């Protein structure tokens, strides 16, 4: 008696999001156009099985089956780098080395952490915010993702304009509290060729 082969397993939303993130990274590298991205995303979001995800990657570098690999993201270990500010502005911009863990403490004043030109050597960056009064902006690279579920604001908003599910780029885990003031997590804007 022969056992019929098991049917192909259906994929999850997380599988589709990983594939979509890799396509967006290909757009950022100039490998595909915006029109091609939209066409390929339509295929990805309509996919039901793993084999349905492969065609949009046929002409891109790497093994198309890599899109199906879910690499677990481990929690960074070791003591955090502590950045403190009292009543002034706390800024990290330009080229700076980002540790696996950051703790940001600000009593009163604005916080700006710009990771777009920073040296990111860890797949996961954990950021703990302890903010009193004042706004905070975190600017992430185009291929980065961020989970802000553990971040709570007293009087103000927490807004993230990047994907929360991990993709091929660096993943940020942002948590903690903000007293009075909003926290915005986003990529840099492109206006007339300039990045703001």
- The level of helicity is 10-25%
Largest β-sheet summary:
5 strands, parallel
Inertia-based shape: elongated
Name the poorly predicted regions: none
What's the number of extended β-strand segments?
Answer: 14
The residue-averaged pLDDT reads: 85
Organism: Pseudonocardia oroxyli
Protein name: DUF1707 domain-containing protein
InterPro entries: DUF1707_SHOCT-like
Domain DUF1707: 9-61
Please characterize this protein's 3D structure.
- The chain contains two helices and 14 strands; from the N terminus they run H-H-E-E-E-E-E-E-E-E-E-E-E-E-E-E.
- With 196 residues, it is α/β, with parallel strands linked by helices.
- The protein has two domains: 13-68; 81-195, no CATH class.
- A five-stranded parallel sheet has the order 1-4-7-11-9, with no helix packed on it. A five-stranded parallel sheet has the order 2-5-8-12-10, with no helix packed on it.
- Strand 13 and strand 14 form a beta hairpin.
- Helix 1 (13-28) runs antiparallel to helix 2 (34-46).
- The longest helix is centred in the first third of the chain and has 16 residues, at 13-28.
- The model has no long low-confidence stretch (mean pLDDT 85).
């Amino acid at each position: 008696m022969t056992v019929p082969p098991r049917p192909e397993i259906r994929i999850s939303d997380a599988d589709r999001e990983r594939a979509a993130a890799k396509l967006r990274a290909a757009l950022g590298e100039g490998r595909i156009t915006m029109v091609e991205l939209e066409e390929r995303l339509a295929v990805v979001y309509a996919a039901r099985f793993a084999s349905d995800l492969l065609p949009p990657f046929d002409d891109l570098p790497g093994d198309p089956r890599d899109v199906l690999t879910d690499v677990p993201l481990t929690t960074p270990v070791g003591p955090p780098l502590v950045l403190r500010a009292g009543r002034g502005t706390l800024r990290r911009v330009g080229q700076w080395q980002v540790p696996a863990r950051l703790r940001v403490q600000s009593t009163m004043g604005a916080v700006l952490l710009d990771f777009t030109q920073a040296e990111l050597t860890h797949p996961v960056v954990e950021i703990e915010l302890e903010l009193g009064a004042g706004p905070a902006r975190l600017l992430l690279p185009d291929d980065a993702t961020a989970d802000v579920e553990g971040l709570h604001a007293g009087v103000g908003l927490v807004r993230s304009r990047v994907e929360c599910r991990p993709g091929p780029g660096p993943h940020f885990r942002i948590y903690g509290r903000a007293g009075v003031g909003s926290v915005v997590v986003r990529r840099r804007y492109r206006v007339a060729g300039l990045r703001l």
